[in-house]
Specification:
125 residues; globular; Jelly Rolls; 4-stranded antiparallel sheet; 3 helices; mainly beta
Amino acid sequence: MSPEDLNSPQQTWSWPDSLDALVAASAFHSLIFENDRVRVLQTRILPGQTVPVHTHRWPCVLFISSWSDFVRRDHLGNVTLDTRLGFQSPALHSPAWMEPLPPHTVENVGCSELFTIQVEIKSVL
């Protein structure tokens, strides 16, 4: 993704605002901070919970405070990631990069809460 893409997300994002994480999955995502350049979200998924179909429009720096295995499915129900299958658990409290995510669900299939903070990059200077 180029800096130009970051400055003009409307031109590259084809999913409706109704699928935004804060709208479509508000029981799992909370807004911590927002301005014209960044949006900071908190995500909490308890064991056994499935987050409804939603999107993450912007790339982000992800901080994982609590980890649990999960299954991510696309909007058609196809598995796109199952962390139980050869996925190395990430380091807690360390930043990681995540690209925008089109419509998907997340099912916590582990025994712990999945708790993250996402600093979404809406634009560059």
